[in-house]
Specification:
The structure is a homohexamer. By secondary structure, chain A is an alpha/beta fold. Helices cover 41% and strands 22% of the residues of chain A.
């Protein structure tokens, strides 16, 4: 992150004090909390929230649940969120968060307790006009709903706007699930246009077939781009004549993979 | 800190999950901010606030300004504050904070700007019923006054109770300056009593002659204890017949040392 | 309410604890307050607000002024509001309120005092993100305006969103007055469609000719449905050839009935 | 309550509207909430809080846990608290609360969950300057500590002043446990003085030997009054020569009765 | 005020920018509001609140009701309050307020309405930690009680600390009524001491026999000072042998004058 | 303002008490504050905010920086804002503010300090639901951005809605810059229509060529109206055949005039 930032800063001829300000997050918070597991024992967890910059508005950024989460990674991702909001002209700053845990090893009940304890610890930090979380690796609409509910309980009223990426019935937005994949396909098509390559003559290989990869593949396929390869953490498909993406999605769904 | 904690935990036969909870601070906050120096340039600073535990009440603990401040040190000191409040039966928890800076290299104007920027960044964390700072190494009534004033500005009203150790005219307490030294002398005399040593037959050597050392020396001297040695970072005094502490304090004051 | 709920619960195979939760309101508040009447004497009033469920969002529901209002009625109506919001997919919960009084026996001044005293007593309960009142039997835009004004006074700022059903100049919505009647006509036409009855061959009889009945009649009439009968608390009109609804509305307006 | 109030009101010649105001509580709140029991099932509970009058200041009054609690009883008790504060010149009003449950049939974990759920439901009602709970039948320092902790969690800071009757280490007051019994003994001695009966010639019979009865007995015994009879829900002691109260307390403690 | 300030500023050698800051009030607020008089008509009133300085803490100062009140007078009085707090070492700033009205021409009901309307208009300005009113010319415990009650209503909780000078049963302080007169007598006796005049040989003439003059006379009389003259707006008493102050007070009370 | 108001009030047959209410502003605030100038000296400033009426909603109105600003002017302008909102049916009231200063004599740094100090002094008055400033003479998007940033700092979250007229990247609205000029041109064309004058046969002379005059000229020019004269504070252009407005704008821009 810092390397790329410095290249951009050199091009912009940024003065030293502004570089330093942009290289360091405004605020980093580390919280420790414990929950009672389903087996009755108590486990401690460490969670992070890094607010990189709020010059343009409330900070915005996902929360990831992963055993490999660490403060340095979260700091870098928070900075990327600042650039992302700024270059797209959205009046938001950048943030990111995470909890060291393997969501696959926890029941729904335990994940709810983890999310609620993390939210309570950060109830002064989050807020519609302060810092707005979103789903990221290992989190989704359920986690966002628990976060929103706990935040609402602490503040004594329903505060839908404290998270994005929640379920529709909790006030989530239509189209949120496929939004990132849709974005990938739009920007790919724009890139083709700039490179003067006709979609019908382009091919694509897609690494990862979760929420983002799947929808990217589908949208590109629908635009007539030949998807020759798709892979995820456990298997890969290759067909130089182009894969049938709708069938592949069906296969994934039937095998409960995505 | 952890070693001593474990010895105590073994004696108390504490269960593992409580040990883990007490070994880790509830919340650690790292803030970055910048000020305009007197020479017109901008300088960035990193500050910390660690809230170790609030089970017994709002957290309490000093803020130090020092070039060697780091997060690990602040974490350890915050834990000591938890034990200190708990064993003395005060309904407060433990916290500590710090800013990486050398207060001797900054003008009063710069120190005020540093203190105000740090306070603004932590305005959601501090509070009379949440977390109450105090002076520590490199800080005193001036810094506490600036902190209180900035906190009051942010909250739109005068909040005297957000810090202890402020000036008398800002609502500080009489006796606060000499309190720590007085405590050292009281506990020393109680130790003598327990050891069945009469004060008149005891001698003392005092390392450090700042606010704490000076008042400890004075109170012990007034109780008839022979102070045979006193030292600070630059010089040492030794007299097996006992030093004249009031004269020594006068000498320090005249030479602007303490 | 409970009987119908149990039928639905049986169909959904709801577990016992959820049934109990849904059968009982989350919160019931009874307030007593007094106002000075126009004749200088003091009269006491009892008012209710029942919040049935807020799982989906802030609770929503009308306030009725009627001599026959009682807590049990308000509890049942609040539950209906929960089902109404839920089945239409609106992120709101259900509530209802009422005051025991006969609005026809009170001057505008007295009704304003009653509304303001009731609002002040419930100022901690209402709120755009907590519980949003609306007009019901015996209340209308005037009462909603007084409620909004008193709520705004108590909170020191203009809070338009605390009620729906207010006057346009206070930020009310266009189309609110005829909305319920419009809904009745839409759902009637959908029912006809489902029953494969052409509107031109349908007839309708409408019981009640206040705000809801009047607009239902008008919208159905405009769609070509023959309205053969209309009645209210004091009179009834019947014409097997179909009534001229616009003329009937004119008659009602001229006689100051609706 | 109403009968005695009317007698007093007649003596004071109170006008009708003020009688009505004082006969009816300002606010009654009924809440329903559920907890997960130790056996994994969910149980619903109904709780009450009645604020009788706040003309003189924040309302004050205990919370009882008992299977026989009902809204009418709580209303009457809340009114008694108003008179109690008023006649003793304390700037507080009167309130009372309760939960329908048998504390003897619930584990500490369940009682904590019940207390926290009740507190969360009433978080807008309680407050150091609004309504201050205290222990009553079936509740004690543990319940007050849980209430204070949950209230503090909801408000994001430690709020010791929201309850009285908490543990010393949570900021409770010395002498709170024996205070009610001490009050009974003081007023009894004053009554003797007024009746011109010397304590040494007085005898006492005490019904109930819980916290209040036990300390009343002890304080009167220490003043030389002969306690001839003591009884509680399961047994009674009688000795016309006077019971040895310290021994009786020891017996109760050993048998884990009080 | 400005003249005397400049003399003091010259002695202190104050720099120009600080002089300017201290000569001008931080904030002046003028509010217009109307009430319904007892005769049913509406009357408009203009009220003032001037906060001169809050450097040392929340501002403090009385509110006067008088036909001759004007913004310039209130500004000058607010500044005097700043000096008063500062020289006596109280951590408060200075303020003053007033309403243009003749309290003798208004019923209690009208005065209550005036006080409540003024308070509502200034609900954002007053506060225990912001600006604390007190009685002044034309106001007393009743006005302070109404102000406190209205302020409490607006904030939804009892806030005793927003005013001083309220009735004892509303949480007022013992000794407040006679406090100013007591202060006059104490400072007079200290002046005599400094001038080496024995009280027994001193005489006093007192202009004004309201709350302040009456108690000054009484306290000086009790210390053996001969009060030779007393006057108020309508009459004067002179006796070179000394007036009998207790009798004079009795006379005033009987004639309903003070 | 008062004269024209009285004419309208006579036409509306307004009763006296309502006239008085509408003639006088609800609240006038005068603040004094000081900043450190670029040359190191301290300068004091006086600022105003007048809230004329909030019956229809939060008050709305610009802030002007000008040496000739005075309280009477601000009061009159605030009243015009009330009428403006009311006659256009917007649920807002009227306000206006100003600071006595010549913005041309201050650097950007000083203007920022002035704006922030003024905002801090009025932080209790402004607010999205209370009082919403906008640019006026001598202020623009920069001042609104500083005001919004300072208000956000004081409240600990980003509050975009506290001002209108801010930069696009701070959440400002597209079209805001040219909005007033566009309004002038729309209303002029409507006037022509009413007078039955075809635009092609109309001529216009425009006094002032700042933001409003320039855009009015441009929009009218684009509609085919012949602009025969344009003037500003330093020069005037006249051409009976019609001026080329786009070229004139270019000339102004090149000479850095508008």
């Amino acid at each position: 992150m810092i390397d790329r930032f410095n290249i951009a800063a050199d091009i912009l001829n940024l003065e030293e004090s502004i570089r330093q300000k942009l290289q360091r997050p405004e605020k980093q918070i580390v919280v420790n909390f414990s929950i009672t597991l389903d087996n009755g024992t108590t486990q401690n967890f460490e969670g992070y929230r890094v607010i990189h910059n709020t010059a343009l508005g409330p900070s915005k950024g996902g929360i990831r649940y992963d055993n490999a989460v660490n403060l340095d990674e979260v700091k870098a991702l928070a900075a990327w969120m600042t650039w992302k909001s700024a270059v797209t002209g959205i009046p938001f700053g950048g943030a990111k968060g995470g909890i060291i845990c393997d969501p696959k090893n926890h029941s729904k009940t335990e994940l709810e307790k983890i999310t609620r304890a993390y939210t309570k610890a950060l109830a002064d930090i989050f807020g519609p006009e302060k810092d707005v979380p979103a789903p990221d690796m290992g989190t989704g609409p359920d986690e966002m709903g628990w976060l929103m509910d706990e935040f609402s309980l602490v503040h004594g009223k329903t505060i839908h706007a404290v998270v994005t990426g929640k379920h529709l019935h909790s006030g989530g937005s239509l189209g949120r699930v496929e939004a990132t994949g849709r974005g990938v396909s739009i920007i790919s098509l724009l890139a083709l246009e700039k490179l003067k390559i006709r979609p019908a003559r382009a091919t694509a290989a897609i690494q990862g077939f979760g929420n983002v990869g799947l929808h990217s593949a589908l949208f590109l396929y629908q635009k007539g781009i030949k998807i020759v390869a798709v892979s995820d953490v456990s298997e890969a498909f290759y067909n130089p004549e182009g894969l049938n993406i709708p069938e592949l999605i069906l296969y994934y769904n039937l095998n409960n993979k995505s």
